[in-house]
Amino acid sequence: MNVQERVYQVLRKDAALTGLLARDRRSPCIYHGKSPDAGSYPVLVYSVVSDVPALSADGEEIERRVTVRVHILTKDGAADAIESAVRKDMERLGFRRRQSLEMAERQQFVKMIDFCIGTGVEA
Questions:
Q1: How many CB atoms lie within 10 A of CB 67?
Q2: What is the band of 69 on the pLDDT scale with cuts at 50, 70, 90?
Q3: Bridge-partner residues for 44, per DSSP?
Q4: Which pTM value belongs to this model?
Q5: Contact 7/30 with Cβ under 8 angstroms?
Q6: Domain ranges of the chain
């Protein structure tokens, strides 16, 4: 299972987190890469934004650093409980928070959080 699949599985299985999110026809609104504009908020969007070599030996890549960005999109800017749940889930996977920023875009508030992990090349 690759990094983005592991992230999705952990976020989707967290009942406390999914209870805070809007739902579409199939499940809680957790999307990879892009969310459809369904008009329901809050939603999560996650994606791998960086995957770079970190350690090489004998011409082989041994370890890499992967950064996953999670966007929390809300209508009212209230993202603290969602952020707390996401941070716990990501830390459980071995990620560490690298940075976060907030912005308002169109009629949404967006909180972006970057999480980084070192992983072997086979993962």
A1: 18
A2: very high
A3: 30, 72
A4: 0.88
A5: no
A6: 3-120
Mean pLDDT (the chain, rounded): 90
Strand ranges inside 42-88, DSSP E: 43-57, 60-74
Give me the amino acid identity at 26: R
Residues in contact with 18: Cβ distance below 8 Å, sequence separation at least 6, in sequence order: 11, 12, 27, 28, 30
In 3D space, the residue among 64, 32, 26 whose CA is nearest the CA of residue 47 turns out to be 32
Residue 95: Cβ within 10 Å count: 24
Q: Determine contact, residues 37/89, Cβ cutoff 8 Å.
A: no
Fold of 3-120: STM4215-like (3.30.2000)
- The structure tokens listed for 2 are 């690759």
**Per-residue CA distances from 19 to 13, 22, 53 (Å):** 11, 8, 37
Beta bridge mates, 110? 73, 103
Q: Do 87 and 97 form a contact (C-beta atoms < 8 A)?
A: yes
For residue 49, give Cα distances in angstroms to 36, 85, 95, 120.
20, 21, 14, 17
